[in-house]
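Tokens for chain A. Residues wanted.
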């Protein structure tokens, strides 16, 4: 394979192999635990069972019970322990079984992990990663399908990441583990085994805060992250069949997010459709929309349009209605193009 250089990736692709997104997560953790003895992994059922989705399968056998261990069913304790370990020099990876369950640990994230560097005047830091499966698409209902990323993007002091490909899942997780700040690492569960892709065989990282242009276009910018990215690609394919050139951007990282990439794309195309599966009110994409209208207003040929989930508890059996599928995305693009 020809070596390629992608924005945000340290090194070249070189020799690659095809794996799933969940395999990429497992590999990233294993390689970082092998590289750095300070890395520890813990959470509900992550040990012998390997986690509810098997993302940590085999890691306890490989690294022992002192570095990979189960915890009580207490998210506040899991996050609090991670903060304490990080402050004392370890590199903890804490798994919250579902993003929906992060609520009990929210104060530890908001008041401790996010603020420790500032409240201590830089004497202490909390280099830790909270991993959690997020989003819908698996008919998990309102306690196993939420997309709560906006709560954490509104929390200064933490970084927020959500990959959509195996390549990015591995590279972003490695970068998060090696970083000096707390990172909330959302894993789109519907892509765990559905997303397959090329991953370098050598060590690499994907820098946080840099978007990926999945396809170039000139008529409209289609911007998303996480589990919706395959739907963006399908929508772009459908529009391409009608002669419409769509640029597809995967944010990958929400805090920090790549304003330059978004603005450069919108200044070129003049139209932007923003897609996520979180509820519409308070959606992180509202920040992206505001930035576009503030800094690229004169370049716009149409209003910025957002396609999102609905402002309701997540339905058990109506995933396809709730989630922004290709049809809803295409309809929004047509509105922008016909404005």
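Reply:
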């Amino acid at each position: 394979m020809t070596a390629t250089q992608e924005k945000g990736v340290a090194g070249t692709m070189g020799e690659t192999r095809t794996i799933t997104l969940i395999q990429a997560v497992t590999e990233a953790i294993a390689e970082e635990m092998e590289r750095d003895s300070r890395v520890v992994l813990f959470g509900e059922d992550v040990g012998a069972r390997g986690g509810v989705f098997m993302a940590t399968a085999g890691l306890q056998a490989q690294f022992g019970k002192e570095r990979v261990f189960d915890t009580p069913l207490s998210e506040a304790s899991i996050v609090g322990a991670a903060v304490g370990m990080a402050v004392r020099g370890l590199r903890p990876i804490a798994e919250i079984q579902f993003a929906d369950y992060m609520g009990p640990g929210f104060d530890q994230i908001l008041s401790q992990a996010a603020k420790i560097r500032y409240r201590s005047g830089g004497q202490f830091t909390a280099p830790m990663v909270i991993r959690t499966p997020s989003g819908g698409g698996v008919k998990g209902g309102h306690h196993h399908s939420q997309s709560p990323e906006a709560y954490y993007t509104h929390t200064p002091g933490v970084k927020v990441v959500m990959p959509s490909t195996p390549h990015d899942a591995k590279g972003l997780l490695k970068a998060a583990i090696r970083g000096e700040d707390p990172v909330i690492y959302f894993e789109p569960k519907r892509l765990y085994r559905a997303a397959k892709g090329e991953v370098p065989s050598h060590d690499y990282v994907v820098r946080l805060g840099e978007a990926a242009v999945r396809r170039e276009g000139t008529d409209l910018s289609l911007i998303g992250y996480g589990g919706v990215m395959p739907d963006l690609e399908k929508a772009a394919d459908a529009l391409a069949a009608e002669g419409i050139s769509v640029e597809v951007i995967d944010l990958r990282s929400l805090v920090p997010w790549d304003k330059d990439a978004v603005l450069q794309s919108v200044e070129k195309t003049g139209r932007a459709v923003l897609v996520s599966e979180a509820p519409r009110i308070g959606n992180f994409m509202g920040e992206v929309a505001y930035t576009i209208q503030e800094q690229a207003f004169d370049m716009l040929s149409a209003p910025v349009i957002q396609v999102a989930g609905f402002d309701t508890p997540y339905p058990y059996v109506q995933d396809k209605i709730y989630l922004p599928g290709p049809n809803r995305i295409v309809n929004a693009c047509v509105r922008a193009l016909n404005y």
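The chain has two domains: 9-206, 212-337. The chain is about 35% helix and 20% strand.
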